[in-house]
Amino acid sequence: MGDTKAYVTEPAFDAKFRQGKAQEIIMQVLKAKLTGVVYHADNTSTWTREIADDIKLKLKEMGLDRYKFVVQVVIGEQRGEGV
Length: 83
What we know:
Layout (H helix, E strand, L loop, with lengths): L18 H16 L9 H17 L23
Helix pairs in contact: 1-2
């Protein structure tokens, strides 16, 4: 009865997800991939896949082993219409 097990239910303080850092990574990848690029519908599937993969790779480099990342990228043409 004296044998108790301790389970870690949350990450250590220094291993917690930092939203600000993730937003910086996302903005860096978007600027690197989309600066000076002209929209063309044929290229969007390739761009979305590359952007999502780059973001996911950089998030994994943060070393947060207790997290799994889901990255969804949507690219659409802006023609002055509401979304």
